[in-house]
Amino acid sequence: MSAPTASRDAASTGRLPAGSRAFRGAALASVLVLTASYVSVLDRVAGFVGGPASDVPLTGVVGSSAVVPVAVVALLAATGVAAFVRERTAIGATIALVVLGHLWYLQTTPATIGAVIDAGGVLVSDAATLLTGVSVVRMANAEAWAVGSVPAPAFLSWYLAVRRRYVASAAIGGAMLVVFVLTGDAGTLGTLVGVLGAAGAVGFGDLERRGAPIDQADALAAAFAAMAVLSLTVSVVPGGGTGGLQGPGGLGAGSGGGDTIEGAVVQSGGELQIGGSTSLSPEVRFTVESDEPGYWRTAVFGKFSGSEWYTDVGVDPWDGEVAPPPGSTESVEQVYEVESATAAMPAMNRPVELSDDVSGATQATPYGTFVYEDSLEAGDAYRVTSLRPDASPEELRQAGDEYPGRIRADFLQLPNDQPERVGELTERVTADAETPYDEAVAIERYLESEKSYSLDVERPEGNAVDEFLFEMESGYCVHYASAMTAMLREAGVPARMAAGYSTGQRVGEDRYVVRGLNAHAWVEVYFPGEGWVTFDPTPSDSRQQTRENRIETARSTGNPDVDTDESRQRDPAQFDERESDPTPSPNESTDNETDPENETEPGSEPENSTNGTDATFGDSENDDAGLLTRLPSYRAIGVWLLALFGAGALARRTGHADRFSRAVAVRRQGSGGSPREDVERAFKRLELLFAGETRPRAPGETPREYLDGVAADDERVDRVRRIYERARYGGDVSSEEAAEAVELVDALVAEERRFTRPSG
How many helices (H) and strands (E) does the chain have? Predict the structure, then answer.
């Protein structure tokens, strides 16, 4: 009876063969694995982009996010209706879930309620965002989108799997996974798990359909292992994590290395990961002629995942129609002259005018940062006019805390799993503050005094802000700015992180040379009626000597890119040394920016430092790095384990595993036991020898019949048989006879290849 016939006969009796039951269970489990791969992405997105408890739908009722409970409900519903609901009806229900999910998203997304045209625009915009490879986290309301997106695919995929439509089930789940592969949110491991789940659903489902025996799973296991090894050794994910597609402040040719602060804060591509040890580049990026010194901003980050910052807005062509900041401002005109090619397009906050020669090729974000269509080349220049908020401390104190709804929604966001002790520390630090401005000053001063500055730090594990505040003794600008932004949000004060360059080296009354070592991150705090005001919590002690040493070292090595004609003959000590108090000083009416020159270099030890770095020019590695690089990574270990697993499954499938096992067994006599046991082990080895070289013993065939058939003319074989029969059936044998049997089998094994399979 053929396997399919057996399967049909078993099905007609209401029971499946053991192999088919196992394959069905494996196929269903694979669909669950595939579902878990994309549900976990959505759950992580929702957890990353949570906000104040009062603003996050369902948070606190179902846990850190509603994604997993909603997915579970969808799976249970699919299980319940799969037996009696037709597929056409199920597809209709899925469409209804899609519509309801998007309505949920639109209802919870600010500024879209009740506007059908705007709602359609939101959906189209978000779809385009995903298809161009931008992370889901950067969507307008990523948590609501995640919750609204999960029920439809989970329901239909599981419904089809229960009805044995495994290929269609895998296609639906796989489509969801592909979206997150394109956006980079799935990651290599998540992609691997999902792909294996889809392959398992199709493969095991096919084995069940054909009624295949259980041992045919070997080939599938080998294929899985090969896929896993390939996925882990060859990266095929186009975006993701800290890479992503280039956006505001994206990577440009000649813009410095990715292991520098400049690479982190300027070349971020819209995503900034809070990392570990880094370095600074002394090469000149541009010169600025400006009425006032300040921060030359390239990017603004609004969403915080706990380990990364995201720019969650798109860009539109620059049309010059920009609303000026509310409140008092000062107009600052800047002329930027590019010295090395870059996609970064700096401008002081907030730009309202741009020179005509570049405006046609420039895009702008709602945050007031520029993106040039290609890259700016050495020799290019452009003019910007900015209206910088210029409120006094008293005006900022009187600004109050009546924040617009959109500001609250976008800039009070914190991860749902933010550790409580961050909020508790914030309460202690701001206990005496009476206004949001006073809270900002208190947090800024706390970070300046409690943490030391160093570029040589371990990468934070878990929540980077929590790690920096409670576990790390030092950090650099990204750590400081992240911590202050998160603490302000804990206090209910809207804040965001900005990145770009600090002022640079003064080479004239109103001219500055800006190098890669000026790359910096700082904080912008929102005040009602005044706009976004700059604060900088990174300590500035001892930075001057560090910069001097860094530039002089680069000059001594003959680096041609470290100077311009204006800076080459100047003492590098001639920097803009604006030793101002926090922004602005509580007791003075001054410019509303803190010191833009707030970075130090490897090799420096700030005056308030407890553990400066001994790193030298261009070197920020830890002393133990040599040892660590010699140890295999967990990823490498995993690849080797998967490769071994796949090789084992393939060897078993092709028979090589049995042959290898037999080859080992015939050569291993073992020791210990009685002479009778020695004889039995020797005879077992003899059987294995002939099973591999001729044929195995047939069921019901006696040892005498078997050996007469495969080696009738060999006296040694006959002698071993007679000793075995006497040990087995006639009583004990002597130690000498047992030793003789073992020696004879050893000799036969040594001559293994003289035996051949009988013809016919």
Answer: 27, 18
